Amino acid sequence: MLAIYANYEIIKRKIREVNVRIEKSAALSYRKKENAGKCCELMAKGFNVAIDGPAGAGKSTVAKKTAEKLGFLYIDTGAMYRAITFAALAEGIDLHDGKALGKLLEKSELRLESSNEGTAVFWNGADITAAIRTNEVNSNVSLVASHREVREGMTAMQQELAKSKNAVLDGRDIGTHVLPDANVKVFLTASVEERARRRHLEQLEKGLPSDFEQLKKDIAKRDELDSTRAIAPLKQAADAQVVDTTSMGIDEVVETILDLVKEHSRQ
Ligand code: DC
């Protein structure tokens, strides 16, 4: 299990001192792991894979599996925005107040623990992994994530977490803002209909009530908010490879990304 700590105050100090740079690995060698199918191992530090795309395109499942296959760190940046949304709601902070949210982030400790089961999220030591997936967080996270103060803090943390590490990051602005020099950039997408269908099935599998038409509306609304916000909107990076997952299975998508990594490592 790997724990990654992100304290924005400490990071801000570090950034001032060392002027954070994203270092691209100079030389990469690729070899197939024995008995591991197409799984590969990259023998270099600081190889970053950026996976961006709209809600429900399968980013987190795909990013987690890809990271597992590569033996890379997985950083779920959506979970970070969800964490501050949950904390702000719990503390009764006005979600329109970017300054207050920025302050909340500065004084708090956000910790992600990656394991085979997924990413566990801790806010000031409290486990909020399940709490960040509620409908209340779903419907407020885009607003919280739209504030400059929040994005600056999160971006600095994400850059620090990924620095000099082999990592797969998924989010909305990884290839465009967080890691513009990422070695491989993927823009994962799927039709609204298909993304709503996947969420609907997920909910039903968990035994939770689900309204397909409402889900479609919610997803379309979140797409709109995320892609029209002023700061670091959801957008395909010019050098990203678009992967439309509408009629693809998870393993197929993972293989596609692994192929891109392999291709890159041969260059
Ligand atoms: O991937 P997700 O659904 O868990 O992300 C939750 C929200 O966080 C999403 O609606 C937009 C925001 N987000 C963002 O603005 N930038 C990121 N890099 C990741 C997520």
The description of the largest β-sheet is: 5 strands, parallel
Number of E-state strands: 11
What count of helical segments does DSSP give? 10
CATH architecture: 3-Layer(aba) Sandwich
CATH H-level superfamily title: P-loop containing nucleotide triphosphate hydrolases
| Fraction of residues in helix | 40-55%
Could you tell me which ligands this complex binds, including any ions or cofactors?
Answer: 2'-deoxycytidine-5'-monophosphate
Q: Give the overall shape, derived from the CA principal axes.
A: globular
Multimerization status: single chain
Strand arrangement within the widest β-sheet reads 5-9-4-10-11
Contiguous low-pLDDT stretches (5 residues minimum) are: 15-44
Here the CATH topology equals Rossmann fold
Beta-strand portion reads 15-25%
Number of domains: 1
The end-to-end distance, rounded to whole angstroms, is 32 Å
What is the C-alpha radius of gyration, as a whole number of Å?
18 Å
